[in-house]
Design a protein that fits this description.
The complex is a heterodimer of chains A (215) and B (464). Chain A has 215 residues and is an alpha/beta fold. Helix content of chain A is 56%, strand content 10%. In chain A, helix 1 packs parallel to helix 3, helix 4 packs across helix 5 and helix 6 crosses helix 7. Chain B has 17 helices and nine strands. The chains are: A alpha/beta (215), B alpha/beta (464).
Chain lengths: 215, 464
């Protein structure tokens, strides 16, 4: 009998190969793919997030865990789709127009993927209309905007306004983050939330996703 | 564009004696601008300033020009009031000002006018450093050697030279697309390939062109580059507890090899303020350097506040927004801070106490952070020697990394450097990873996985 706690441990330790091996063996033994995700993989990533929050883990530890999770999830995704299972949310993420910084945005994207979200990363210097387009094509219910420069922060407001003009603002929740950004600024521009760091972004996304169920 | 220089690799140190490596003194001073000599005995303030939150567009442009007018006026007023013996203004273009090169050049001309007037009326020795943004990394993978962004960057350099730039710099980003991923995954193979192969290849190519543009003009000094997008990224992530400090320290040491490439192409200094690897460059090349530390806390925090000053020739505040403080606007306030920092160093030099002050500056930070431990005068010389003892840039990068690991181990064992368990675990991992690297850059490239290979275009680096 395959010990499924090894899947939890493999994800916790960022051990890609073992995560894959245990997942394949579990499926061969007839284990329900949904239970692999909910009983082992998401709890493992929650523990990773906790260790990161408490400064027991660095980002590389966190990302390697996320990769192990994703590798296992890639095998499970078609099976989950067949059962009608949905991701935790569909996220469109990008650094706003005029800003080329992407490390913080990449971290948030990786953490959200690890947290069971389906993430579309639009990259850096993303024009408002690209966010608008991606919301429709990806059936997103969450939009994450990142900016590192004070001079590019206004592009967050422009993007939120573009979502309103295009008539898609009500379909999504908007989260913002980045060094110069604050919760107050989020309120000022009409965003739904602000996160100070990547792991808090997952908790925020989970809360907002409940308020904006995806299609 | 004609090739103007042949890369010449440094084989010895310009400053082999640690007692010669001190602030204000460089074997090869730089004369530039309005009668300013940098590295010839005095440390001068280098003031850097930027806009408060404001969109940059044709509509806001008059307001933006007004902001720069105000900043230049205030900074020079404070400099004159405090009888500074020399001043450097640095204008770091924002991305939009490089995308529209005429905008950046207009502000460069504005600042040049202010410095010219201060020189004419008051005899203030000064220089204007202009640093266009490296906007070449917008594609994924980035196309570094051709295309619209590259053309605009070159045009920005050309126009800023005409507008009156005395020193040209850039924080080039070639290799960052791989380095960022390597940092995030803590993978030394990707980090070393980026720092030791991709970065130098791009730096040689780019700096050859910058030096050529300066040579055509004859007035503008090719200053230097910075590993800001590499080692400072690591430093900031370590500051936020996202990366191990020991990794940031090792990356700092290794990053000196890529920043050295600018000098191999003909840069003369002063290197960029945010290049904390500057002391290593100074030891190798003898060129003056700009540094930033405690008086740059307006821009970012660091564990290097004092030690960064110990070997500097220009002392910078990195960047400050034009916002109102109780005393006045922030750029003027930080001008005063820098001037007082410089006064103290210059009095120490005048009284023959520069080495004592250097050692105090260094000792006050050295073993409180791994990142400071690799930047003491002794560590600087050790890393610089490790670099020049190797032939190629890949081997130099690995050697610098190993030297940093040795310094950190020595510091932890005998000098009071405190490393947490998880930092020690990462130091072990880093050492093991450095030891297991292949013998050549070609072997390392061949061993990179497909994910890494997909991040960069070999042709952007002249690779197969």
């Amino acid at each position: 009998m395959n010990d499924l706690s090894n899947l939890y441990e493999a994800i916790l330790n960022g051990d890609n190969a073992t995560a894959l091996e245990v997942t394949k063996a579990a499926l061969a033994a007839g284990t329900d793919p949904g239970s692999l995700v909910t009983d082992y993989m998401i709890p493992a990533m929650d523990e990773v997030g906790r260790r990161f929050e408490s400064e027991e883990y660095f980002v590389p530890d966190l990302l390697l865990s996320g990769r192990a999770m994703k590798a296992a999830l890639d095998i499970l995704r078609p099976l989950l789709a067949a059962t009608g299972a949905q991701p935790a949310g569909r996220v469109v993420i990008g650094t706003v127009k005029g800003d080329l910084h992407d490390i913080g945005k990449n971290l948030v994207a990786a953490m959200l993927e690890g947290g069971g979200f389906e993430v579309t990363d639009l990259g850096t210097d993303v024009a408002p209309e690209k966010f608008v387009e991606a919301i429709s094509t990806k059936r997103a219910n969450l939009v994450c905007l990142s900016a590192l420069l004070t001079v590019t922060m206004p592009a967050m407001r422009t993007t939120v306004e573009a979502l309103k003009s295009a008539g898609v603002r009500d379909r999504v929740k908007v989260m913002i983050g980045g060094a110069p950004v604050t919760a107050q600024y989020a309120r000022e521009i009409g965003a739904d939330g602000y996160s100070e760091n990547a792991s808090a972004a997952v908790a925020l996304a989970r809360r907002l996703a409940i308020e904006a169920p995806h299609a | 564009m004609p090739e103007v220089s042949t890369p010449s690799s440094y084989r010895t140190l310009a400053i082999p004696d640690v007692n010669e490596l001190v602030f204000g003194q460089a074997p090869h001073p730089v004369q530039c601008g309005f009668g300013l000599q940098i590295g010839a005995g005095s440390v001068f303030p280098e003031v850097n300033f930027t806009l408060p939150p404001i969109g940059i567009s044709a509509e806001t442009w008059p307001e933006i020009l007004g902001q720069y007018e105000e900043m230049a006026t205030n900074i020079i007023r404070r400099a004159l009031s405090l009888k500074v013996s020399g001043l450097v203004l640095e204008f770091e273009l924002l991305p939009a000002m490089t995308e529209t090169p005429e905008w950046g050049a207009e502000i460069a001309a504005l600042l040049h006018r202010h410095l010219a007037a201060a020189h004419d009326k008051h005899g203030l020795p000064s220089a204007l450093r202009v640093t266009p943004t490296d906007i070449r990394d917008q594609g994924k993978p980035p196309q570094l050697r051709k295309g619209m962004h590259f053309e605009r960057l070159l045009r920005s350099f050309e126009l800023c030279i005409v507008a009156g730039a005395d020193i040209l710099s850039i924080e080039s980003v070639g290799g960052k697309e791989l380095h960022d991923r390597g940092l995030m995954l803590g993978d030394l193979r990707a980090i070393v390939f980026a720092l030791g192969v991709l970065c130098p290849a791009d730096m040689h190519w780019l700096w050859n062109r910058i030096v050529s543009l300066c040579a055509r003009n004859g007035h503008t000094v090719p200053g230097g580059d910075s590993a800001c997008g590499f080692a400072n990224t690591a430093m900031q992530l370590a500051h936020q507890k996202m990366l191990p400090e020991v990794l940031a320290a090792v990356v700092r040491a290794m990053s000196a090899v890529r920043s050295l490439a600018a000098f191999e192409e003909g840069a003369r200094g002063p290197s960029k303020d945010c290049a904390y690897e500057g002391p290593i460059l100074k030891a190798i090349t003898g060129a003056p350097i700009s540094m930033e530390g405690k008086s740059a806390s307006c821009a970012h925090f660091s564990p290097l506040g004092n030690i960064a000053a110990s070997m500097c020739d220009l002392w910078s505040n990195e960047s400050v927004q034009n916002v109102r403080l109780l005393s006045g606007n922030a750029p003027e306030a930080f001008t005063e801070t820098l001037i007082y920092d410089c006064r103290l160093m210059n009095v120490a030099s005048a009284r023959g106490a520069a080495l004592t002050m250097r050692d105090w500056l260094s000792a006050s930070d050295e073993f409180l952070s791994p990142q400071a431990a690799v930047l003491s005068p002794e560590a600087t010389i050790a890393i610089a020697k490790a670099i020049v003892n190797e032939e190629d840039e890949y081997s130099r990068t690995v050697a610098a990394g190993r030297a940093a690991v040795t310094i950190l181990r020595e510091g932890a064992a005998h000098r009071g450097l405190v490393l947490s368990k998880k930092e020690i675990l990462w130091l072990d991992r880093i050492e093991s990873a450095l030891d297991s690297l292949p013998g050549s850059a070609e072997e390392l490239q061949a061993s990179l996985n497909e994910e890494y290979k997909s991040l960069f275009l070999p042709e952007s680096y002249g690779l197969q």
